[in-house]
């Protein structure tokens, strides 16, 4: 989601952000973009609170989610991200010499944290698009389940993410391109630290406008103003004081004028209290222009 739990901005940092392609261009009234996708992260090492990498028992997260962006008016969109199935798991640990079971595997299945929001088009010309977004992160997932309370499909807090977006269309030869930048502030409750977020995305359209190739980077910086202890989360994406710089790529192919498929790869190149392995996602989308 747009809070650190979607990290991944990156991961899920990443799921919502990777779903929000073309979000700087507000949809016309009655038009929309809808996506059904699966997202997967498995990691055996994480960035510590000092930015170093440490190993951990293999853990993972998986979700199946819906993303929708619908134009209520020509200037106002409603946005929804719904991870209606979310799974967090830990692999079993066996002795390398005897094969005996040391720690059993464990998993939790539930709904994840839902994001609902609005985006308002402030300016939209042939040369630039400027918009503002307000997204609410709802604590609909589980934040403390399992044998040790560390199995989570949400962080248990209600957050409000406000951001400004700028999009620039241009071309490279005959290939349409765009770039977009956002900057925002995420207010988090329940003694979680607030966050500063920014990101850059560049896309190029190829194969007679059937294929979009997109590269993106996202940065999340914790303001370190919360009191929730997150030092033992070993990269849990729902932890407090997460920080990262991520790089990712996405390919979206239009099978018809409206229907298409997409795949995404995102990884943190540096961070604190976040997993140190890449995430993967793929899905189908409907783009009603």
From TrEMBL:
Signal peptide positions on this chain: 1-22
The keyword Signal appears for this protein: yes
Source species of the chain: Geojedonia litorea
Keywords on record: Signal
Protein name: Transporter
Source organism superkingdom: Bacteria
